[in-house]
Amino acid sequence: CFSGRLKASGSLPLQPVSIEAPFKQWGMDFIGEILDPSSVGHKWILVATDYFT
Predict the structure, then answer these.
(1) pTM > 0.70: yes or no
(2) 16, part of any domain
(3) Which domain holds residue 43?
(4) Inter-CA distances, 52 with 4, 14, 29, 45, 48, Å
(5) What are the pLDDT tens digits along the chain (53 aa)?
(6) Is residue 28 part of a domain?
(7) Structure confidence at residue 42 (pLDDT)
(8) Long-range contacts from 7-15, C-beta under 8 angstroms, 24+ separation
(9) Angstrom distance (rounded) from CA 27 to CA 48
(10) Is residue 12 exposed (0-12), middle (13-18) or buried (19+ Cβ within 10 Å)?
(11) Which InterPro entries does this one have (predicted)?
(12) What pLDDT shows up at residue 17?
């Protein structure tokens, strides 16, 4: 990303998942350290995704 000066990383092939109900399984990723922090100094992003929804 030019504006945020992020470095792209490789990705893995998608794998199907079978989830029974909402909130049973989560995926989490950290993004950062971002070279140009936000106006309040944040340099990391936490992404949490519920696999069902």
Answers:
(1) no
(2) no
(3) 24-53
(4) 30, 15, 17, 22, 12
(5) 556 666 777 888 988 888 899 999 999 999 989 989 899 999 999 999 999 97
(6) yes
(7) 93
(8) none
(9) 6
(10) exposed
(11) RNaseH_sf (IPR036397)
(12) 83
